[in-house]
Every structure is written in structure tokens, then in C-alpha cells.
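Sat 14:20. Reprocessing the chain from the morning session after the first attempt stalled halfway. Input below, unchanged.
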Amino acid sequence: MPTTEPVTELDTRYSEPGAAPAAWGEARETLAGAEVFWLTTVRPDGRPHVTPLLSVLLDDVPVFTTGARERKARNLAANPRVVLTTGTNALSHGLDITVEGTARRVQDQAALTRIAEAYTEKYGSDWTFTARDGALHHADGGAALAFEVAPDTAFGFRKGAYSQTRWRFRAR
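Finished this time. C-alpha cells:
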């Protein structure tokens, strides 16, 4: 995500009276700390495809991986628009985050090495990758493509004291 702060807006239609917008810093912490995310892509025929996955935040940019033959990768080849979502299943507390944007494949060796390190640091040794040939390779022989999500808009849904925050990003 851009290193500059996004424009923050509170949507009063979906917020309790007196609610304040969530700070982008809190959203960033939520994205960095979340373990499970939901990725929505669009199939070539226009139907949505939603799947859980792991993601890391690298330089304020959400990054996820997928196998080259998986439905996600095939969908992204036809349409790179995505929604990445995380949060809690609780109704009384928490901040759910939705990031709408464009998935861009990462192939740079130095960037892939950093992504591999971030996955191991966040998820442990079961998620150790070696970066080479434009992909991340697991010890079991599997390979994954890495994608960063360049955001257009993100939403924060605060629960308990309900509020909805919108963050608008400038083009990178």
C-alpha cells in the first residue's frame, strides 16, 4: 500500500451516533496480525470465487500466494481485481477489514525473498519457502506464485460500538 496515509472517511449511514472513524494505523495492525484471510476473485464467466488463505503485510502491502494451477491464479490471469477480507466472527467486538484492489504478481527475486521471510516469521517453519525462478518453492516440491494487492479502497467495520470507515488510496 502507499506509504502515505489514505483519505479516511466515516460513513455515518452505518455508524452509531458519535462514532469516530477507525485510524488507518489500527487497520494496518489488523492486517498485519490476522492469520486467516478471505480472497474474492472473479471467474472468467463472471461468477465470484471466494477462498480462505494466508497473507502477510510487507511494506504496508498485503501479499498472498497461490499455486499456478489453482482457481485463484486462473481467475487472476483473466481479471486481476480482488477483494481481500479479514476480521473476527464476533458481533460484539473487533474490526473487520476489506481491501478492494488489483492483484499484481511479484516476480522480483529480492521481493520474493522478503515475502518468503515474512511468511516464515508470521506462520512458522511449516511455511518456509525458497525464492527462485519468479516463484516461492516449498520443501515438499510445491511452488507458489506471489501477488500483492494494490488497494483502491479499504473498509473497516467496527463492531460493538458500530462504525464504518472508508479509506481511499491514491494510485501508486
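The longest helix spans residues 109-123.
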